[in-house]
Amino acid sequence: MRDVPLSNLERQFLLDALEESKRLDGRSTPQRRPLELHFGRVEGTALVSVGETQSDHASLVYAQASASIAEPAVSRPIEGMLNIFVTYCGSAAARFADAAGTAGGDEAVEVTRLLERCLKESRCLDLESLCIVAEEKVWQIRLDVNILSAAAGGVADAASVAALAALAHFKRPEVTLQGDQVTIHPVSERDPVALAIHHYPVLSTFAFFNRQKSGSNAEKIVCVDPTWQEEQVMAGKIVFGVNPYREICTLHLAGQLLIDKSVVLRYAHVASQHAKSVVDLIKNQLHEDTQKRLAGQTEEIGFAFAFKQNSILQNVKPAEMVSTANLEHV
Amino acid sequence: MPAEMELDPDNVSAKSSPSARVVIPGDPVPEIPPSDVVILGPGLRREGPHAIVTRPGVLRHKPLPSSAEKLAPKAIYWVDTHAKRYVAARGEHVIGVILAKAGDTFRVDIGTSEPASLSFMAFEGATKKNRPNALPGDVVYAKLLVASRDMEPELVCVDAYGKKAGMGVLSGGGFVFTTPLHVIRKLLSPDCVLLKTLGDSIPFEIAVGMNGRIWVRCKSVKETISLANAISVAEYMNNDEIKAMSAKLVNALAGF
Known about the structure:
The complex is a heterodimer. Chain A has helices at 8-19, 99-102, 105-120, 155-169, 228-233, 261-294, 303-310, and strands at residues 35-39, 45-50, 59-70, 81-88, 131-133, 137-149, 171-172, 175-178, 181-184, 193-194, 202-209, 221-224, 236-242, 248-255. By secondary structure, chain A is of the alpha+beta class. In chain A, the strands form four sheets. In chain A, strands 1, 2, 3, 4, 5 and 6 form a six-stranded mixed β-sheet that branches. In chain A, strand 13 and strand 14 form a beta hairpin. In chain A, helix 3 crosses helix 4 (155-169). The mean pLDDT of chain A is 87. The A-B interface holds A 4-13, 16-17, 20, 22, 24, 26, 320-325, 327-330 and B 2-5, 18-22, 58, 80, 97, 99, 109, 111, 135, 137-139, 170-171, 173-176, 215, 221-222, 224-225, 238. Chain B: One of its GO terms (cellular component) is nuclear exosome (RNase complex).
């Protein structure tokens, strides 16, 4: 199936509106959409939504971290491994609805590579701490990122937050060594151990649009956190992977764009502020989750509880018969 | 106090002719006297001598002006539903986006499961030599000529007299947005004051497609976006609320 195509009228209108610094959803150009993060009951699961929750205009990403034991790579015998797999759910958008669509195509490859560069190549996860027996056994962390809703754009940004949150939330079984004997303790015997994360790089997307009237040397219009329509119309984009210490871990340029280095530095700074707020969010949510687990409040952890907060079923009213006598004003 | 609603469908006809009631697919329609000739509107289908509900919603009816003819229909019955997905129906005006050219026709997306076809000749003043200048990506306002379950829908941009009658490629700017289908029906009903009230203060041009798409154009981008938002939020408002909302909108646009 194909998505509804963006008509020429809409493209032109979007560009005209951007000339006046107006965006279609009412945001200002440097404004990001609200981000919500929830942890699941199982350790290592995280759900991130960008935009108004549970509407057509929200992006939803679910990430899950799990661990298994494997032989290390020959070139890196004392390091564990991190593998990232990105899949698009069939209902993520009309273009993913059929079998050819769930492979994801170019979009999926782009998001997978961005996440790999941001999380793997930045070495944010301490892989040496995942070694059990050198050259023989190491922990292999598998990160599954499922894009549940991609209709609103901003998938890469949401996916990076979900992936980081899942890694931060995950706990692997405790391992003890006695001489040659390796014991992996089940959860019932010993508490599982969190992963060691050095720093938290977060992806941040900036879309660039050419001004229509002035020449191509004029300053371009920049939007933070573009929606899907804005991504279809943009001249190019930069995706930064920055951590709160303003270290750039990933830099990805796409589209037909000529950019000055001062532009890169300026927006890296903006991206780093976003990274800081994301890391604060992850740490706060993680802290709340840990407190609830320690206090034994198992009813209040997990996705079911988080969604109940948003449900209208929270408001209780005694059952009563509804009259359908007066339906003229429906 | 609300009266007890009886859940036993067999007793519905015993109630003193309700003007409207909630129905779900599969319900029989005992309100229709079996001897009368009636028109079955959307949501109802004929099964032998009876009518059966096919879409969930509120069942309504309207008596038609009586005529001397023997088989003149006495009333029209239909079901008001809330839906977002459009099902093509003949004679309706829709807004489509041209996907591609295929031989002598355009393939146009109107939100149905299949794209519709629009022939080059179905424009005002079109001949074999004089082709319409419409490109993929353009927005068209057209009428459904053929719309059945078994065939791909067909569109035309001319009326029966060969005139464009407001149809054709929509150009000159403007903004296209989508709303649920019941909002469209509400907008077009003569009882709704939304377009009239807004038009008193903001000059605009509008094309309403029965497939849930609306095209608006105002003098400035700000007015266009405000108008689009005003139509979207008027979904559940009654006429008084609409008037109040329009007044607030006009004040906001004027800068107060």
